[in-house]
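Appendix B, record 7
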Amino acid sequence: MARRRQLYEGKAKILFEGPEPGTLVQYFKDDATAFNSQKKGTITGKGVLNNRISEYLMLRLGEIGVPTHFVRRLNMREQLIREVEIIPIEVVVRNVAAGSLSKRLGIPEGTRLPRSIIEYYYKNAALENPMVGEEHITAFGWAGTQDMDDMVALTLRINDFLTGLFLGVGITLVDFKVEFGRLYENDDMRIVLADELSPDNCRLWDSKTNEKMDKDRFRRDLGKVEEAYQEVARRLGILPEAGIRDLKGPELMQ
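Structure tokens (predicted):
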């Protein structure tokens, strides 16, 4: 038995060497950050819930033909993923005004937008992930024109599908962030959905009350953060069988 080699640690996840070439193990932490890591804390059981929620959403998207890096869930906190070359762009979809959009443009939070809006942010923590345009992305070589076309097409499909899925369980998909990567297979390259989909990177509101059911409860000190994540999982029908009994760290692998 040998402990897997850690390759990267981010704010919410750790990546380990996978059991076979071209794979990684993604471990979900309970750590929480906000405002570009100016606020830090712990949400008990968050990693377990996000692992399950992300697994469920990635599988459902796979069923409608959206390619993802997800392979399978390994245990309560870990999943096997394909190794991809991450494109350093966060793609944000906004359906309802909230967060930074409301602040930037003075639009009251909760205002339904005339249509879904896509924004791009350069993934660079030292620069606080600045907002950029497609001209910046292609000029600086972060992604090509075809990459952008693929990312936008996939993002719109993801938004359409998730909006309906969440609405079916009484949740409004206000906005969300996705990341993409280049998956190389033999001589082929394709753009696939990467990272995760969870209340960490989706704004989710109760459709009737507009009660927040996502990381904004942590950002804004609203309390009942763990309960909100659990409620999302409960409505999706994927609460862990034994509750939030979790693994304290990455498991050992032969």
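Remarks on this record: The longest helix spans residues 145-167. Residues 246-254 have pLDDT under 50 and may be disordered.
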